Amino acid sequence: MNDFLQQVTVWALPIVFAITLHEAAHGWMANRLGDPTARMLGRVTLNPIRHIDPLGTIILPALLLLTVGFAFGYAKPVPINFRNLRNPRRDMVLVAAAGPGANMLMALIAAGLIHLVPVLPEQVGIWLGQNCVNAIVINAVLGVFNMIPLPPLDGGRVAVGLLPRALAYPLARVEPYGMLLIFGAAFLLPMVAAQAGLDVNPVFDLIEPVIRGVVGLFVSLAGLGL
User: Fold this and answer.
1) What is the pTM of this model?
2) Any transmembrane segments, and where (predicted)?
3) Which of 61, 48, 62, 56 is nearest to 20 (CA)?
4) Kind and range of the H or E element at 27?
């Protein structure tokens, strides 16, 4: 039980802050660019409670931690009215990129905090170090995953804002079905393939090298030899 509680505590803070501040960053950037919707609803805040989704922020990470030993999840999406933005096409890119950008910033902060471990009491240092390493991994996974160029993920909205209109409009029309496509490719297809004895996971194959590179960068900044 003590080992389980230890495992929960060193995953809980990184996962909650990674997914909730990701959403807060979207709202903060939108407010800066002319859309106060998220601010008026109290979503431009560092208080994780305002962003928690019971299923995505608590239940899903807990189930994953219990079953596969790794936590991942999502928060309540921040409402954005893109028509309020001063330059909707350009500002959509900045609002979308703010979430993954916040994850990279949190990973950088975690890498910096690891340097405090040697000067702290042993047990506190171990706890902080585990939190920081988990924060680097979780923020790397969340940031890279969200930059997959398929709406409604952040990367898809960035792509829609940057591509020529002839390509942007067809991509934007995928948004209502984007999460179904990603869920199918990331979860259903690997499950079906596994029944046939095949190892097929196109989403993981796409982002795994990038995640490794990002994690490696922040681990290097932390001075770790992982």
Assistant:
1) 0.88
2) 12-31, 52-72, 92-114, 126-148, 177-194
3) 48
4) helix 2-32
**Which residues does 168 contact at the CB level (< 8 Å), separation at least 6?**
159, 160, 161, 162
Return the structure tokens found at 66: 């219990």
Helix spans in 84-197 (H): 88-113, 122-146, 154-162, 165-172, 175-183, 189-195
Q: Exposed e or buried b for every residue in 105-129, given b needs 16+ CB within 10 A? A: ebbbebbeebeebeeeeeeeeebbb
Name the DSSP letter for residue 56: I
Task: Give the residue carrying structure tokens 């996971």.
Answer: 201
| pLDDT tens digits, 165-206 | 999 999 999 999 988 898 888 878 888 888 888 888 888 889
Contact of 71 with 64, CB cutoff 8 Å? yes
The residue type found at 131 is N
* 175 given a catalytic annotation: no
Environment class of residue 165 by beta-carbon count within 10 Å: exposed (0-12), middle (13-18) or buried (19+)?
exposed
Per the structure, the count of domains in the chain is: 1
d(CA 82, CA 95): 9
Please report where in the chains the tokens 């800066």 appear, as a residue. 32
Q: Which one of the listed residues 23, 122, 175, 208 is annotated catalytic?
A: 23
Each residue of 79-124: pLDDT tens digit? 999 899 999 999 999 999 999 999 999 999 999 999 999 999 998 8
